[in-house]
């Protein structure tokens, strides 16, 4: 609990306030406890889960103009900064280690943070791991290679997912998360992509039959910091905050990875037929999507240098 004279920081984000079901909330609660402890309660972080402070775009406007923190998805960030989509080039990472190395050591992520600040006067502080890798589910047939997706209808979260489906011969329709279960149940969509955490959270295993662990993209959300907030923190408090962000994100990473196999086992027990493509099949997915997804990125008026830089780091 913060003291009466504590510096109060507001942190808003999507999803339930259950840390077992929502890894973003796990990050937020750990960030709060670490910051408050290490600042001797000179800083208090107030949490606003479940989009209490507004939908994605509303919260992005808030964090640009109000001294606060916000955790945003690709959808939230992309309206201001479409370059963020270079981080979601499909089938780029084989495992957790390679995905984390991209954010921890890659030049692309470093330069994206600099450009985001230059353009928006706000800071991309961290890529927060929220659920591992996206996987295909559907209720029509087992997906082993790209040809198995042809003709299927998928729920899309954003424009990047529509582009992904089209490159694989499927179609994508944007459907809000709150409507996904009924859309799958009623046949509006045959399938969707999400990490196992979200498949469990949404009960999607009740209306899907097949799960393909194809490491489609690495599931992260982005911690945004208002510039005025950071400028007005003392050097000591700024150091506390930055160190706490690293610690909380490391806890998230360990949690997400440790729960990955348990969540897949849970889905197997609920009746999903699980398949993991082999190396040759994964190469087919990469080859089928790479060129068309990059063509889509270029249509967003993204400088090709960003794409090239991302691809170099992903190698």
TrEMBL record:
<dbReference type="InterPro" id="IPR038404">
    <property type="entry name" value="TRAP_DctP_sf"/>
</dbReference>
<protein>
    <submittedName>
        <fullName>TRAP-type C4-dicarboxylate transport system periplasmic component</fullName>
    </submittedName>
</protein>
<dbReference type="Pfam" id="PF03480">
    <property type="entry name" value="DctP"/>
</dbReference>
<keyword id="KW-0732">Signal</keyword>
<dbReference type="InterPro" id="IPR018389">
    <property type="entry name" value="DctP_fam"/>
</dbReference>
């Amino acid at each position: 609990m913060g003291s009466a004279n504590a510096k109060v920081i507001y942190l808003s984000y999507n999803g339930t306030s259950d840390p077992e079901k929502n890894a973003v909330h796990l990050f937020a609660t750990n960030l709060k406890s670490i910051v408050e402890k290490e600042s001797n309660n000179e800083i208090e972080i107030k949490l606003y889960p479940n989009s209490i402070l507004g939908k994605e775009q509303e919260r992005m406007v808030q964090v640009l103009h109000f001294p606060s923190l916000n955790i945003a998805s690709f959808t939230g960030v992309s309206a201001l900064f479409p370059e963020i989509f270079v981080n979601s080039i499909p089938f780029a990472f084989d495992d957790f280690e390679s995905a984390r190395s991209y954010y921890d050591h890659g030049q692309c992520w470093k330069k994206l943070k600099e450009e985001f600040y230059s353009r928006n006067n706000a800071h991309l502080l961290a890529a927060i791991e929220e659920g591992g890798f996206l996987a295909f589910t559907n209720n029509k047939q087992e997906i082993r290679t790209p040809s198995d997706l042809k003709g299927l209808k998928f729920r899309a979260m954003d424009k990047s997912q529509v582009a992904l489906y089209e490159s694989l011969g499927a179609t994508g329709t944007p459907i809000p998360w709150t409507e996904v279960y009924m859309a799958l149940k009623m046949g509006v969509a045959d399938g969707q992509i999400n990490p196992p955490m979200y498949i469990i959270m949404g009960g999607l295993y009740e209306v899907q039959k097949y799960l393909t662990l194809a490491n489609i993209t690495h599931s992260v959300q982005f911690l945004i910091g208002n510039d005025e907030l950071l400028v007005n923190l003392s050097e000591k408090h700024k150091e506390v905050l930055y160190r706490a962000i690293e610690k909380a994100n490391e806890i998230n990473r360990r949690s997400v990875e440790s729960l990955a196999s348990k969540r897949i086992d849970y889905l197997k027990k609920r009746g999903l037929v699980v398949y993991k493509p082999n190396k040759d099949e994964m190469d087919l997915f990469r080859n089928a999507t790479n060129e068309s997804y990059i063509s889509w990125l270029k249509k967003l008026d993204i400088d090709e240098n960003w794409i090239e830089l991302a691809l170099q780091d992903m190698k």
